[in-house]
Structure formats: C-alpha cells, structure tokens
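Blinded run. Sample ID left blank on purpose so nobody reads anything into the name before looking at the predicted structure. Input follows.
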Amino acid sequence: MGYLFRFFSSNWNPNFKIDMSITVIFTGFIAKFGAGLFLLIQVIILLDFTHSWNDAWVEKDEQKWYAEFLAS
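Blinded prediction complete.
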C-alpha cells in the first residue's frame, strides 16, 4: 500500500496525463454516440413534420376540388 501511495503521489504529472487521456477518449466516444443519436432523432422529427404538412395540404386541396366539383 505504501509503494502505490508513493508512486501516485510522486508521479502526479504522468498520472494526470493518463487520466486526462482516458477522459478525453471516453468523452469522445460518448459525444460520437450522442451526435449520431441526435441526428437520427432529428431526421425522424423532420420526416414526421413533412408528412403531416403534406397530409394537411392534400386534405385542403381535396376539399377545394370537391367544392369545385359540386359547384359546376
């Protein structure tokens, strides 16, 4: 136990570099996964919005066509 304490307390600079490297690598992995998930969710939301908008416009167009058909 005493050896490990002396090693980690006397070599704080290399230990700090190792800890920071691990943190950066792990954070980068999480960021890549999170970014991919974010893009996937955004694509799903965009597609849902465009389909809803298209359905609304098609419904409006069908109503006008039906009214014009009855008027003629």
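Unblinding after everyone has recorded impressions. The chain is about 95% helix and 0% strand.
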